[in-house]
Write a structure and sequence with these properties.
Radius of gyration: 21 Å
Number of helices: 13
Oligomer: single chain
Shape: globular
Strand order of the largest sheet: 7-4-6-5-9-10-8
Largest sheet: 7 strands, antiparallel
Structural class: alpha+beta
Strand content: 15-25%
Number of strands: 10
């Protein structure tokens, strides 16, 4: 993992809600062009309206326009205190209601707001040694939230407790646990951070890294879950993601009992399942890749949803900056 790679893929993560994607953390770049020239754009200013923003061309281009060799990044003060809580909610709509309340009460201090289904938690408990269920009873859905504070631990804890009490009064939260030390915070975060590894232990994973308007996520989950259940009897949805910024990891695994090796029947579903999910996303004019890029795997699928003019403009940029197709060939779009 390198800074150049993070910028080339415009990486996101669990704290995008507070700090933004890699693009928002970068002020300037140094880039080696396809001709071998070195562009020095290592500026340290937040404002520069003296022409085209070349920096933003290279960020998120997945190395198809040039190679990032240096960068100027924004820095933020280290928080004085953090409050982390795992919250049980009846469903995605209540999680969304809680998000609105958290933003109103915590403001910019709300660093992360993750949603995860009980399926995710069960997979982690089953496959990751040392993890345990932090709440007495299972819940259909959970929210993992983090508050970063410039004050102290006591005030951070009080702010999170006040938020959860208000949400419980409204019926949006059924149970919660608030970390009181670093070890407990790490244990709560482990439930979220180990989902991908736990899902991989079940066998073949069909992944969808999608973005949606935050307000549409509960309806999307309900309607698309129903479509998948009706058309794909072998599929179990493993849904989690960054509810605060609208990025959902809407993954599929084989149903329990199929064993660690993927069945041919499940693997054969991938193309049809991708189309169903991405068509549902495209209804809202949302992207089929929120933070993982296109590479080769999503290149042709993405082209199916983009307007012809958008693809034409992208090809013109590629032709202008890399006329011989030397830079990361075959990625993002077909070079003609």
């Amino acid at each position: 993992c390198t800074i150049g790679g993070n910028l080339a893929s415009n990486a996101g993560g669990v704290q995008v809600l507070r700090y933004g994607n890699a693009r928002e953390l970068c002020l300037g770049l140094e880039v080696v062009t396809a001709e071998g020239a070195l562009w020095n754009g290592l500026r340290t200013l937040r404002k520069d309206n003296t022409g085209y923003d070349l920096r933003d061309l290279y960020i998120g281009s997945e190395g198809t326009l040039g190679i990032i060799t240096a960068a100027v990044l924004k820095l933020f003060p280290l928080p004085a205190a953090q409050g982390v809580a795992l919250v049980a909610v009846p469903g995605p709509q209540q999680a969304l209601d809680l998000l609105g309340l958290a933003q109103a009460r915590l403001g910019a201090g709300l660093t992360a707001f993750e949603i995860l289904s009980d399926t995710c938690v069960e997979l982690v408990l089953q496959h990751i040694p040392g993890t345990r269920r932090p709440l007495a009873e299972a819940s259909p859905w959970y929210v993992l939230l983090e508050l970063s504070s410039t004050t102290d631990e006591a005030q951070a804890a009080a702010a999170v407790e006040g938020l959860l009490e208000a949400a419980m009064d409204k019926g949006w939260v059924t149970d919660a646990t608030l970390a009181t030390n670093l070890a407990q915070s790490e244990a709560l975060w482990a439930l979220r951070e180990n989902i991908s590894e736990a899902q991989a232990a079940e066998g073949k994973v069909i992944k969808h890294d999608i973005a949606l308007p935050v307000s549409q996520i509960p309806a999307f989950i309900a309607s698309t879950d129903a479509l998948i259940a009706a058309q794909f009897s072998l599929v179990r949805q493993v849904t989690f993601g960054h509810l605060g910024d609208g990025n959902l990891h809407y993954n599929a695994s084989p149903l329990p009992g199929s064993g660690p090796a993927p069945t041919a029947a499940f693997v054969a579903l991938e193309g049809r399942l991708n189309e169903l999910v991405h068509d549902a996303v495209h209804v809202g004019q949302a992207p089929i890749s929120a933070e993982h890029g296109l590479g080769v795997l999503r290149r042709d699928e993405s082209a199916r949803y983009k307007a012809p003019l958008e693809l034409q403009l992208m090809r013109r940029i590629k032709q202008a900056l890399d006329p011989q197709g030397l830079m990361n060939p075959g990625k993002v779009l077909k070079f003609e």
